[in-house]
Amino acid sequence: MDFTRADFYRSYGEYHQLPPSDRTEIAFAGRSNVGKSSLINKVLGRKTLARVSSVPGKTATINFYTLDGIYLVDLPGYGYAKVAKSDKQRWSELIEGYLHDSRELALIFQLIDMRHPPTADDRQMIDFMIESEIPFVIVFTKADKLSAREREERMAGFAQEIPFFGEITHIVFSARTGEGTDRIREIIEELGE
Predict the structure, then answer these.
(1) Under a CB-based contact definition with an 8 Å cutoff, are residues 108 and 135 in contact?
(2) Which candidate in 24, 33, 106, 187 could, as Cys together with 56 as Cys, close a disulfide (CB 3.0–4.6 Å)?
């Protein structure tokens, strides 16, 4: 699979705009500013395919990217407090509509900032995926910002903070160093076959 050949397909701002699901989809979810766009760019070997911003809540649409006959789907970040209530409602409807739709959703990469315990929204998302039997992998982002000792402490913390942690595949990732990129690509390749 040639990851550099991925292309932006389309953005959708409202649930009713989403196209019918006609191929395997792999989604990326997480709170605002967790690094979804940076991860997508790193995995696809591109600097600016997914728009990166230091402003939380920038991705307010579901963005579809094509890659060798599959869709990579960038879901809007959740949990950012400084947006209008109407925007929060629209984002919520968009994300929930996507997740409840009968789509060819093969996997969700659930991103969590490795520096902090999972938020209430992160835990709610994990509970939802477990209850809905949606396959997922947790990706701990921003790993380069922690020392080896801090990483160990956070992993021990996650074992207590995330239900069924020992049974969940997880990847430590850094957009800066590329750590974890190859493992994410392997999973995408397996699902795209």
Answers:
(1) yes
(2) 33
Give me the CATH number covering residue 34.
Answer: 3.40.50.300
58 — alpha (psi -120 to 50), left (phi > 0) or beta? alpha
Question: How many separate domains does the chain show?
Answer: 1
Chain mean pLDDT for the chain? 87
Q: Using one digit for the tens of pLDDT, what is the confidence trace for 42-80?
A: 999 987 777 654 444 445 788 999 999 999 999 988 765
Contact 162, 123 (CB under 8 A): yes
CA distances from 108 to 45, 87, 89, 103, 152 (A): 20, 23, 22, 12, 25
Written as six digits, the tokens of 146 are 């922690």
Q: Is pLDDT above 60 for 86?
A: no
